[in-house]
Every structure is written in structure tokens, then in C-alpha cells.
Design a protein that fits this description.
The complex is a heterodimer of chains A (117) and B (770). Chain A has three helices and no strands. With 117 residues, chain A is mainly alpha-helical. Chain A has a single domain (2-50, 69-108), classed as Helix Hairpins. The longest helix of chain A is centred in the C-terminal third of the chain and has 32 residues, at 71-102. Among the domains of chain B are: 302-518, no CATH class; 596-674; 726-770. Chain B is 73% helix and 2% strand. Chain B contains 31 helices and two strands. A two-stranded antiparallel sheet of chain B has the order 1-2. In chain B, helix 1 runs antiparallel to helix 5 (104-123), helix 13 packs antiparallel against helix 14 (293-314) and helix 24 (561-583) crosses helix 28. The N and C termini of chain B lie far apart (78 Å). In chain B, 48% of the residues are buried. The chains are: A mainly alpha (117), B mainly alpha (770). The interface between A and B is large, with 89 and 101 residues.
């Protein structure tokens, strides 16, 4: 499983990077989302896969015992998911407005600050 | 002593503050500063002559080995006296010459700073302090050369000078550090007495190259000489001070100072003799082709510097004595000639020697001074120049196997120097007075007294050279040779070979002066060769470099996001994969791999297909949907692998993202098919390589044991300390509550951003409707 998952992570990274290298703004955002997913999955994978043992203390006991999934990467990923949502929503609205004002989503045409450039 | 060296800077700072009130009598009085320094250095002379030079130490940056330590031995004092003495005259002269100039205060501030820096160079014992002062002279001279900053030519020549001497300064720093490395001390004095035989050290060629680079650029040796004639755009007092008497001698000083340490090897002697010789002849011949007084003087200065380097290269005691004496000879007559050129420019309004004549009728004292220094530059008795020139011939005659050639070179250079001196010091005053100069009048005493004083000194030292012998010449030479030097300075040596050579020089030079007339035609003719001159080549190189850096910058700083990303990722990829494939043992530890259930395989397959669709589809809706599928698949993976919180968050967020995307999708542009197949292939290859790198990295990390200390701590304490059972939640809201607060703030900022963006959209729409 780990091997396949590692390959999947690599694929997500590749897909994300490929989309970021495109000239279209929409593709850029999709690329960012894919890359973010890849990164989350990478952290998750590196925190080791543990099946069926969530880091939740069972009724009646005061501490977890035995094997359980590491809570630290999970906390990290949770934060990352939320933050990347903030980024993505802002970016989506930004390109919408940018498109409205500039009239293009070709990155090469909006790389100058001068209005007439 | 610290105060003496720094007084120039203090003076400059004071002027920066009170520059506006600096005029009239205060300007003349400011000459008291260099004069006081002159007197102070004179008072140090007996100590230096007795072999007990004054030493002063002050820890400046001890951790870096930089200390302000000064050491007034004969050599340093010789230069310090020239600097402060000529400084006094230049301060006086400028008071009249620059009278009423808008930025007089600024001018004196630069002069003061320059004087301080120059004194620092010649008196510093710490080699890093020497470097710092050295750079300060370059900087202050930049401001002085470019003082007429409204003229483009001035600015350009100031930049040229800064470029050349600044580059030399960097070489000096490198050379100094190597010297410190080899000798193990920062103190020049200790270097000289350390007994390290540097010529046998492996780093000797490197040290030599660097020191030569520094000295040759500063002292305008071929092929770096071109900045000096350029620098004549400066006001004449500046040319006098910097470009004849002091700054250009800094390189000579460096060579003299380090000669006990570095000389004794063929590299040292051959390089200096060759380059010094080339410089003196090249520049001396150039004198013939100039019509501008200051141009003539500039080239004759370069020639004189060449002679100095040449003498240091010969390196015998006689040669070093000749060099030390010639430094003073040259400072006296060349400064005077510059000052006279300034007077002529000031009064007659031109420096063109083809037009100037007869001015002697108007300004007799100046003409007399001109005559005296001209014969001093010619090396005719009874002036100091004669003493200097005799010493030079003495040195070349006893210079070993090549002595005939070297002497011939020295004679030729001296003939041309004679010509230059006569053209600048005698021709403008001789002959009938043309009409155009009839309005010229006698300059004020502040202008004519300094050159007359210098001329008088030239004569005095010529008649009584023994005045200098014990106090100045002997300690100066003692700093450069081992043991006590033994010599006597005399005007008259009797009828010997040296005298006959002097006679030959005089005859040849005079013949040249009578027969040869400088003309514009010749100056133009040589101007055509500019493209292949060192100056032209250097400027071409500078332009080429500029173009190259422009091209290079455009290549890297293209302004296209994807190109930046491409470069960054390529670099990262190359670096990390090089490391991985050269020094990491690649393997997969199957013992750590868990098995896989069918539903998991299905999910992975789903993700794979969805990712491919997201990348390759032409429909935006399909891409967004596929992106959602990827997100949900990840969500399922979280469910299977014990991360319920993550699953919930991912589910919610992914849903929101997709909804948001779909909502604005039809306000978004259609996909453009801009890139060509080749570009896509290139990007695809990079992306795949990068993905593979991540996969390899992930697999490598999985081989290692994981440290679960932090996770276990939270697991043990979540309930005990925070009364929570969901450990992930407890971490977020309790253990790392502050982080979560910041995270929420970030989200708030994003939300505000989204809101305000939507707001602007409305505004633009309204404006459009109106």
C-alpha cells in the first residue's frame, strides 16, 4: 500500500506542477489544489499508515495504549487543509475579478504593472 | 597620531554640518589643518631617523583583527609629509581658485576626507586598516574627480576612475588576506620581520598578482593607466593633489612597503621592470601627442609612475634610494606644474599649448616658478630633479646584465619628460604675447605663492640635498632594505658616466623641444587608435559585460511565473537527485509495507484517473469535478487509515472548494490552448521527474524508524491535562491553541479579502454602467 500511495503522491505533485506551469490562470489554481492535496497526502504517508486505530481515547480509559495513528501529522494536515482552503477561495475570487478587469486569463499578458503594457 | 589621521575626516564631517558658513577667510584658515599636520609629522622625523619610529595602537574591531595602529617610519613619513605639505598648498590655492563656488564647503570636505584617507594608507600598520583607507581614497577621489557633476564627461571619468581603482582595492583585500594567511599576522611591520620567506611559498604568485593588481590600478600603470588622463576633468587643485602628488603614489607606496617581503624573486623584478618600463615609455611617447596642458601633465605623471615602478623592480639599494628621492622630486615639480596649469587656465581661459605664449610678461613670478620646475623635471642642475635623475641613472647602470637597455629606456623616458616639463612650464610664458591674452592679469597671491614655494623647494633641495639625507632619505630607504643604507646625496658627483648621460638627456630633450611642435593634428591621429588602446578595450569589455548581465537578468527575471517555477524546480531537482543517486542507498524495506485491500486499490485507481482527467481535459467543469474526486478519494483514505477528523475536514473543505469553483466557473474564461506541444512535453517531463523524486524521497523516508515521542506525549496527556478524548482536537484547540488562533486569523483575512474583492467588482461594474 505504501508504495502505491507514494507513487500516487508523486503523481499528484507532478500533475500539480504541470498545471502550475501552464499559462492559464484557472489551470494554475487547479494545479495549486492538486499540489496541496499531494502535500497533505505526503505528510500523512510519512506519519505511517495505521489501520483502524484512530487517536481517540476510548470510553473509560485515560490514555491511549497499544498501536494508534500518530496524532501530530493529523493535526498538521488538518491545519494545512483549512489554510489551503483560505488560499484557494481567495485565489478563485481573485482570478474572477482579475479576469473581469483585465479581460484575459493569460498569465503572460498580466505580468506588467503598467496599464498599457 | 589617531587624531592626526582622523582629523581630515572630522574636518569633512564638520563641513558637512556647517558647510554653508564656510567661505571667505575661513577657507584660507582651513589650510592650518594640513599645515598643523605637516608640522606634527616633521616633529616625528627625528624619531624615525633614529630608528625609533612613533607607534600608535588602538583596538578597533579586535575580533576581526582590525586595529588602528599607526607606524611613522621613514617611508611613511616621507609620504605623510608630501601629503600634508602639498595639502597645505592645495588648500590655500583652492581658496582662491574655487572662490565663490556654490559647493565650496563640499569641495573642502572631500579634500579633507581624502587627505585623512591618504594619511591612513601611508601610516597604517594593520594591513586591513590600510585596505580600508585605500578604499576611502578611491571613494573620496571619485567625488573629487566628479566634482563638476553637471558635466557628463566628469561623471564618466569619475566612474572610470572608481571602477579601475575600486577593482584594484578588491584585489588588495584578497592579497592582504593571503598575506595574513601566509605570515600569520595583520601587522605589516611584523610581516616584514617575521622571517617568512614568501618567494618560496606556494601562494607567492597569487599574492604577487593581487598586490600588483592593486598597485598598478592605483598608480596608473599600463594597461590600467587610462583612468588618470581621464581624471583630468577634475578641478585643477584636485589634479594637483590626487593625480600628481599623492593618490597615484599609493600604489608605489604599497610596492615600496612590501618590497622587503615580496622582492627577491624573478617574478617581482621582471614584472615590475617590464610593466614599469612599458608604462614610462608608452606614456612618455603619448606626451608628444597632447595639446592640453593637463593632458601633457597627466601623461608625464603616468611616465613618472612608470619610472618609479621600474626602479622598485630593479630593487637594488641604489634603485630604491632613487625611487624614494624621485617620489619627492616628482611631487614637488609636478604639483607645481599642475598649479601653474591651473593659473594659466584661470587667467587665460585656455589650456591649449598651441595657443599659449608670452604669459611671462604678465605673471613673472609664475613664469619664474614654471622655469624652475621645468628644469627640475628636465633633471638639469642645480635643481632637485638633477639629483633624482642622477640617482636613477646610477641605479640603472648597476642593474646587472640588462643595465645598458634599462639605462637607454630611462634616458629616453627622461628626454620626453623634459619635453613635457618644458612645454608645460616654459612654453606658455615664452615668446610674444598674443592679443587674445592681453586681458589676462597677474593672479592673486594665494594662487601664485604655492607654485613658487614648490619651485623654491626644488631649487633648495637641489643645491643642498644633504638637508634631506639624514632626516628623510635614509630612514625611508632603511624601511625598504635590510641593514643600514649608506649613501650621500650630492648635487655634484664629478665628471663621470652619469653626468655624461645627463648631458645626453638634456641635449636630446632640448632638441626635441625645439624641433617638435604639439599640434591638434597629431592628437587626432592618435585618437583614432583609441579602439585598440587599453582604455577602448576596457570600455568595450565593460559594455559587453553590461550587455551580458542584461541578457542574463532577462533570462532569469523574465516576469513569467511559470519560468520562475521551472527554474526553481529544475535546480531543486538537479541538486536533490544528484545527492540521492550518489550517496543514498536506494531500497525498499518490504517488511514495513502493509498489505492492500481491493477497495483501497479501487480508490487509488479512481484518484489516478481523476488526476489525469483534471490535467488533460479541455472542459473546465470536468477538471473541477475531477479535482473534487481526487479530494474525496483522499478523504476516504483518511477514513481507512484512522484519521476521522481529517476525513471530515477534507470532505467539508473539498465540497466548499468545488462549489465555489462551480459558482464562479461561468464567470471564468474558457481554457486557452496556448502552449505548443513542445512546451507541454518539456513541462511534462519536468513535472514527472519532480513527482518521481518525491516518490523516491517518500519511500526512502519510510525505510527509517519514526520518532513518536511527541505523538505519545499528546496521547498520554490529552485526557490528563486537557480532559479531551479526541487527541487531534485537543492538540489543535488546547496544546497548540495559539497556532489555531493565528490560523483562524489567516482565514479571517482571506475571508475579508474575498469580501472586499467582490466589493470592488461591484464598483467596477457600476462605473462601467455609468
Amino acid at each position: 500500500m505504501e508504495i502505491l500511495l507514494a507513487i500516487m503522491v508523486g503523481l499528484l505533485y507532478a500533475a500539480g506542477l504541470f498545471m502550475i506551469l501552464r499559462r492559464s490562470l484557472v489551470k494554475l489554481i487547479i494545479g495549486l489544489v492538486l499540489l496541496g492535496n499531494g502535500a497533505n497526502l505526503l505528510i500523512f504517508l510519512l506519519g505511517r499508515l495505521v489501520k483502524g486505530r484512530p487517536p481517540i481515547i476510548p470510553e473509560g480509559s485515560k490514555a491511549l495504549a497499544g498501536a494508534f495513528a500518530d496524532p501530530v501529522p493529523q493535526a498538521l494536515i488538518l491545519t494545512a487543509i483549512v489554510i489551503s482552503f483560505g488560499l484557494q477561495s481567495f485565489a478563485i475570487i481573485l482570478i474572477k475579478q482579475a479576469y473581469k478587469v483585465v479581460g484575459t486569463d493569460d498569465l503572460d499578458e498580466i505580468n506588467a504593472t503598467d496599464e498599457d503594457a | 597620531m589617531l587624531l592626526a589621521v582622523l582629523s581630515g575626516f572630522i574636518f569633512a564631517l564638520g563641513l558637512a554640518a556647517f558647510g554653508r558658513r564656510f567661505k571667505g577667510r575661513a577657507v584660507v584658515l582651513s589650510a592650518l589643518l594640513p599645515f598643523g599636520l605637516f608640522a606634527y609629522f616633521l616633529s616625528l622625523l627625528p624619531g624615525a631617523a633614529a630608528g625609533q619610529p612613533a607607534v600608535y595602537r588602538y583596538a578597533w574591531a579586535p575580533s576581526l583583527g582590525v586595529e588602528l595602529s599607526f607606524h611613522a617610519d621613514g617611508l611613511g613619513l616621507l609620504f605623510a609629509l608630501i601629503i600634508s605639505g602639498i595639502g597645505t598648498l592645495v588648500f590655500l590655492y583652492s581658496a582662491e581658485y574655487m572662490k565663490g563656488h556654490k559647493y565650496l564647503g563640499r569641495f573642502y570636505a572631500y579634500l579633507g576626507a581624502f587627505m585623512g584617507a591618504m594619511l591612513g594608507v601611508v601610516l597604517s600598520d594593520n594591513i586591513l586598516a590600510l585596505f580600508i583607507f585605500w578604499e576611502l581614497t578611491s571613494l573620496s577621489s571619485f567625488f573629487l574627480i566628479g566634482f563638476k557633476n553637471e558635466e557628463a564627461a566628469s561623471r564618466r571619468s569619475a566612474l572610470t576612475a572608481l571602477g579601475v581603482t575600486g577593482a584594484g582595492g578588491l584585489l588588495l583585500l584578497a592579497g592582504a588576506l593571503l598575506l595574513v594567511y601566509v605570515t600569520g599576522t595583520y601587522s605589516i611591520r611584523e610581516m616584514l620581520t617575521s622571517g617568512v620567506a614568501l618567494p618560496e611559498h606556494g601562494l607567492y604568485p597569487a599574492v604577487l598578482c593581487l598586490v600588483f593588481g592593486a598597485a598598478f590600478t592605483k598608480s596608473a600603470q599600463f594597461p590600467f593607466h587610462f583612468w588618470l588622463p581621464e581624471a583630468m576633468k577634475a578641478p585643477t587643485p584636485v589634479s594637483t593633489y590626487l593625480h600628481s602628488a599623492t593618490m597615484v603614489k599609493a600604489g608605489i607606496y604599497l610596492l615600496m612597503r612590501l618590497s622587503p617581503l615580496l622582492s627577491g624573486h624573478q617574478y617581482w623584478h621582471a614584472t615590475l621592470i617590464t610593466l614599469g618600463g612599458v608604462t614610462m615609455l608608452y606614456a612618455a611617447v603619448h606626451i608628444l601627442f597632447r595639446t592640453d596642458l593637463k593632458g601633457i601633465l597627466a601623461y608625464s605623471t603616468v611616465a613618472a609612475l612608470g619610472i618609479l615602478a621600474f626602479l622598485i623592480g630593479i630593487g637594488t639599494e641604489a634603485a630604491l634610494l632613487a625611487a624614494a628621492v624621485f617620489v619627492l622630486v616628482h611631487a614637488l615639480y609636478k604639483a607645481a606644474l599642475f598649479l601653474i596649469a591651473g593659473i594659466i587656465d584661470h587667467e587665460a581661459g585656455t589650456r591649449d599649448v598651441t595657443r599659449l605664449s608670452g604669459l611671462g610678461r604678465i605673471m613673472l613670478p609664475v613664469a619664474a616658478a614654471g622655469f624652475l620646475v621645468a628644469i627640475s623635471s628636465a633633471g638639469a642642475p642645480p635643481t632637485f630633479g638633477f639629483v633624482g635623475k642622477d640617482l636613477i641613472y646610477e641605479a640603472t647602470l648597476h642593474a646587472g646584465p640588462w643595465s645598458t637597455l634599462l639605462t637607454a629606456m630611462a634616458i629616453l623616458a627622461n628626454m620626453l619628460l623634459l619635453y613635457g616639463g618644458f612645454v608645460a612650464g616654459i612654453r606658455p610664458f615664452a615668446g610674444p604675447l598674443p592679443e587674445e591674452f592681453e586681458k589676462a592679469h597677474m593672479p592673486g597671491p594665494l594662487l601664485w605663492v604655492p607654485p613658487v614655494l614648490l619651485a623654491a623647494l626644488s631649487l633648495l633641495f637641489g643645491l643642498a640635498p644633504q638637508l634631506l639625507e639624514g632626516m628623510l632619505a635614509r630612514p625611508a630607504v632603511a624601511a625598504m632594505v635590510a641593514g643600514q643604507p649608506d649613501f650621500h646625496l650630492k648635487l655634484w658627483h664629478g665628471f663621470n658616466l652619469v653626468l655624461q648621460l645627463s648631458g645626453l638627456t638634456l641635449a636630446g630633450g632640448l632638441l626635441l623641444y625645439w624641433l617638435f611642435r604639439p599640434s591638434l593634428r597629431l592628437e587626432r591621429r592618435i585618437g583614432r587608435l583609441e579602439n585598440i588602446s587599453p582604455k577602448g578595450i576596457t570600455e568595450g569589455l565593460a559594455r559587453g559585460f553590461e550587455r551580458f548581465s542584461g541578457w542574463y537578468t532577462h533570462l532569469l527575471q523574465s516576469g513569467y511565473v511559470r519560468r520562475y517555477v521551472f527554474i526553481i524546480i529544475s535546480f531543486l531537482l538537479a541538486l536533490v537527485s544528484y545527492r540521492i543517486f550518489t550517496s543514498v542507498n536506494l531500497y525498499i524495506d518490504y517488511g514495513r509495507i502493509s498489505s492492500m485491500a481491493t477497495y483501497e486499490a479501487v480508490i487509488l485507481l479512481l484518484m489516478l484517473v481523476a488526476t489525469l482527467i483534471a490535467v488533460f481535459t479541455d472542459s473546465r467543469l470536468a477538471a473541477v469535478a475531477a479535482m473534487g474526486v481526487v479530494g474525496y478519494s483522499i478523504c476516504l483514505l483518511f477514513v481507512f487509515y484512522s484519521a476521522p477528523d481529517l476525513a471530515m475536514t477534507q470532505f467539508a473543505i473539498d465540497t466548499l472548494t468545488v462549489i465555489l469553483f462551480v459558482l464562479v466557473l461561468y464567470r471564468l474564461p474558457k481554457y486557452l490552448k496556448i502552449s505548443n506541444t513542445r512546451g507541454r512535453l518539456r513541462d511534462g517531463a519536468l513535472a514527472l521527474a519532480f513527482g518521481m523524486l518525491i516518490t523516491v524521497l517518500a519511500l526512502e523516508v519510510l525505510n527509517e524508524d519514526i520518532n513518536r515521542e511527541v505523538g505519545n506525549y499528546y496521547a498520554e496527556h490529552a485526557y490528563v491535562l486537557a480532559r479531551g478524548k479526541n487527541i487531534v482536537n485537543v492538540i489543535l484547540v488546547d496544546f497548540r491553541g495559539m497556532d489555531t488562533l493565528v490560523e483562524i486569523s489567516v482565514l479571517t483575512v482571506a475571508a475579508v479579502g474575498v469580501f472586499s474583492l467582490l466589493g470592488t467588482g461591484l464598483d467596477i461594474k457600476k462605473r462601467g454602467e455609468k
